[in-house]
Amino acid sequence: MKRPLEYNPDLIQKSEHLPLEKEKGSAKKWKTPNPKKESSETEGGPGLLIFGLFRFVKKYKGRISIIIGLLCFEIGFYASIPFSFKYLIDEALINRNQNALYWIGGYLAIGTITFAILGTVRDYLYNWASARIIQDLRLQMYEHLDRLNLDFFSNNKLGDILSRFFNDLAALEHALLAFIPWGLGPLLEAAFGTMLLFLLDWKLALIALLIWPITFLGPGFLSRKSTEISYTRKLEEAQVLSLVEESISAQNLIRAYDLSDYFFNRFKNNCEKLFQISLRLGLTNSYLERSAGSGILFLQGVLLLVGTIFAYHNTLSIGTLAAFLPPFLNLSYSLLYLSQYLPALNHASGSAKRILELLRAPVFESDPEEASIPELKEAIYFENVHFRYKGRSKNLSDITLTIPKGSYTAIVGGSGVGKSTFIKLLLGMVQPNEGKILFDGMNLNSLSRSSVRSLIGVVFQETFLFNTTIFENIRIGKPSATLEEVIEAAKKAEIHEMILSLPMGYETNAGDRGTKLSGGERQRIAIARAFLRNPQILLLDEATSSLDPVTEARIMKTLSLLREGRTVISVTHRLSTIREADQVFQMRNGKLERFSVPEPEQQAMVL
């Protein structure tokens, strides 16, 4: 009897929670972070949050200045109320001063109305600014992803990247929205309250000032601990999300091999790790709040006792004592609010660290003086091109090749010899470690990537369809295309009739990754994209390798129409697909060699 497959965490290599890969890349245009700047911004938890994200905040410095000004007015008015009580008791009531009563009453009435109006304005401005800052950060992250080295995506899990867009951004948004009511507001109230206490009675205020440092010992230590645990929790959340994403993507495999229990146990094990870390974080945050609260209660007790003694010995007036107590209690609550905000701030600091790791990953920097190439006039040249992925031996070595305009060039070879890497080099997705790629004598590195790619249409081995309509999936080839242009491209790709047979025609949803369509149908949509794009250069990357012979023969007939009048570069391991090529090269061990195409009866072989 076979032993059932079980998940054993001891047999699985433990995942190392490392920051995102920071590839230096091979070319000077790959921009890497400044180590000194990075270290200065990551030393403290809240400091990382403040300094690391400052560039997103300073964009709205005008509105934020207004917000802070309005907040200072609110707190200043609120802090002045105890003075009103002092004069109300000492002047209006004890001295029977009716004018003082009117003045104080009028001041409080007008101030309260103004307080309410300006507070509403400040709330609107702050919520607007907070939402804008998060949106700018989200857009910056998305834009940054599009410029990252491709190695980044192979070295980092999809779930970990997605976690930064959802979990980490949500934590930052929560901390940002709570910053005024739970952070800056209480901090300013504490500052105003301290000044007010010194104005009322400097002796009591001095006693409070001497005792305050004691109340911050516990929160100071636990805050750093909370930030560390919060960062670890974020890593575990990303791991769990990655497992969910993998399980959803691999449902066919999981069900075919009856692996449901195995993957459930694997997921359960990671959830248990997340539970343990969440428990540690929750307890640490509870201790943080409790230590701050206990310190504040101790401070309250000492000052109330000393204040009562001063009043008993007539060194403090009753009005001053009555005025001293409200701002003192308000100051205590402000410190309490700050202590309760610290866990959210530490949580956001861990998220900020992960987001900044993403934003510091090296990207391809466009040269403002780079040239554009409106059309290919002569040829594409590879001159002694060498390339290797990080940590591997050379994938391509000393590639020298001329691809004349209008020619059909085929590159054949087995799997893993570097054919797809050759396509990536042409598209500028990766850059040579040595040598040059020239378009009409102009170095690809000095050309605008956008202008080069505008000349190129690609049909990949794996056609990716978006979870939207078939119309939109075809229009990927030319986003500005009209319905008539899309239909014409579909007819050329011989997919129009099939689309019309669907319940909603071109408005039919293709499903996630095109799962509602067959492999041949997906490939024809990819060909329709290429027809719609009408490129000068056509790249075929194993365009028919995943199809059955009958479907492949039909697709090859359509591709022959697509090749007309274009510069075609086809990489494949099927010799039967390159009968009409003008020049054929075989890629072997990362090098190109001239290749003689066998007779037709031998072309069915696969390299």
Automatic annotation (TrEMBL):
Molecular-function annotations in GO = ABC-type oligopeptide transporter activity; ATP binding; ATP hydrolysis activity
As for membrane topology, the entry says: Multi-pass membrane protein
Note whether Zinc occurs among the keywords: no
Query: Which residues does UniProt assign to the signal peptide?
Result: none
Q: Does the keyword Transmembrane apply?
A: yes
Tell me which UniProt keywords the record has, alphabetically: ATP-binding, Cell membrane, Membrane, Nucleotide-binding, Transmembrane, Transmembrane helix, Transport
List each copy of the ABC transmembrane type-1 domain by range: 66-347
Q: Where found in the cell? A: Cell membrane
Q: Bias regions of kind Basic and acidic residues — which residues? A: 13-26
Q: Determine the domain of life of the protein's source.
A: Bacteria
Q: Which organism is it from?
A: Leptospira santarosai
Pfam families recorded: ABC_membrane, ABC_tran
Domain (ABC transporter) spans 380-607
What are the transmembrane regions? Answer: 64-81, 101-121, 204-223, 292-312
Please tell me where this protein is predominantly located. membrane
What protein name does the entry list? ABC transporter permease
> One GO CC term of this entry?
plasma membrane
Q: List the residue ranges of the region (Disordered).
A: 1-43
